[in-house]
Amino acid sequence: MIPVAVELPAAPVRPARPGDAHALFALSRTFVVSGELRPRPLGHYRTRTGEFLLVEENAPGGALAGCVGVRDEGYGDAVLHNFCVARGSQGRGIGSALLRVALGRARGQLATRVFTATTGPAVLFVRHGFVPVEPERAPAAWAAALDPARGSRVYVRTL
After folding, report:
1. CATH of the domain at 91
2. Which residues, in sequence order, are CB contacts of 158 under 8 Å at separation 6+?
3. What is the C-alpha to C-alpha distance for residues 134 and 143, in angstroms, rounded to an integer?
4. Position 105 in a domain
5. 136-143 contacts: CB < 8 A, separation 24 or more?
6. Within a domain: residue 109?
């Protein structure tokens, strides 16, 4: 019998609240240290909390298991940013759950295309219908903020 990967049910995805800024910052720090995310100050998370979706760990204490920001860029475009799942929570379906809800939020913002950038292998994005695209096809201000030295690749999904 061939083993089959099973995606376990994830904890519920919810919109971030203003009080979640510190937890978003703390979760993101691990990925900043590894070079997977750009450094951002706590103030960034305070002012943009409304863009984020998150999943909390089931354990008491409320550490975050994962988060993703969804920003409406206008003209039918949205971008996903700061997408991360805590190392100990990976492989449990949290990233897929966050991505499904993020795409739903983008649809609700009337987006027809969703862009993201990653320094990783993009397996999750490709599995969910994203394809590589030249940065010039992405919203200009967002693409201009990408740091070429990090080697990010841009992906898009049409909704």
Report:
1. 3.40.630.30
2. 112, 113, 129
3. 10
4. yes
5. 138/77, 138/79, 139/73, 139/74, 139/75, 139/77, 139/79, 139/115, 141/73, 142/71, 142/73, 142/79, 142/115
6. yes
The pairing of strands 64-74 and 113-118 is: unpaired
SS3 content of the chain, % helix, strand, coil (to 5): 35, 25, 35
pLDDT digits (tens, 9 = 90+) for 52-67: 999 998 755 568 999 9
Number of structural domains, the chain?
1
Supply the pTM of this predicted model: 0.90
Residue 3 lies in a domain: no
* Dihedral sign (CA 14, 16, 83, 89): negative
In a domain, 17, yes or no: yes
